[in-house]
Amino acid sequence: MNHSSLRVLKYAFQDFGRNIWLSIVTITVLVLALLSVNILISLNAISDSIVGSVKDRVDVSVFFKKETPQATVDNFQEKIRVLPEVKEVVFIAKDQALVEFTEKHRDDPAILEALKEVEKNPLMDALIIKAQNTEDYQQILTILNSAENQEIIKYQNYTDHRKIIDRITVISDKVGKVSLGLTGIFSLIAILIVFNAIRVTIYTHREDIGVMRLVGANNSFIRAPFLLEGVLYAVFASLITVLLLYAIFGAIGPYLSSFLETYNFNLVEYYNSNFVEIVVPELLAVILLNVVSSSIAVGRYLKV
Prior knowledge:
Alpha-Beta Plaits; alpha+beta
């Protein structure tokens, strides 16, 4: 780093410190804008995880009549498997189902006793069908309800999770719009504050700028400290935002983890695994916002 660069850096830090309260206000607004962005990112990640988990749990369970030959069941299974709407088909034999049912209720003596009383296996062969998309289940149900297939089907079980998914999506969209609106508001305020912060800095250093001109300082050297000051705002705001986010995650983590445990999602792990993809673009965006604001202020109020 040459001597001129060191001087530019020195002037930028001096200006930052001399107008410390203005710097604090500027950084605070930038932090609020970044927090709004991260709230939006977190909500999108949570809603995507919940919706994905709910979609994975949607299926159709088909139970066959006991007198249905195994060959007929196999043919039916193959016919369903080749449908373009079907993602996966799993056959569960009644003996396997009985073993799983017994294991699941091993601590319930009443149910185990009831099974002994029945003597024969009361369960039926079943087929678990998963669709490519939740929208495909209606087509699959139409096929299952055909007269030909109903001859071998005892009953079928399908829980429509579309309402749950739609509700999650609607809530996520509404909160996302609010977060996006707050981000826009704080970003606009940040632009104005950075603009005025640089303007104030220029005004307080008008005599120094005059001296720089007299000794032959070029325009780039005079502009550089003000632009660098905007970069400092961005760096400090990003750093504080990251620290605040992890502090917030630590505070609400136990409650959030218990809520999202069913959906196998952890917000801290999500941020850890996507840290660079989230923080770096945010930092670059804030730097760009501040540099543009600083450039406008310098171009308008610094006559060089």
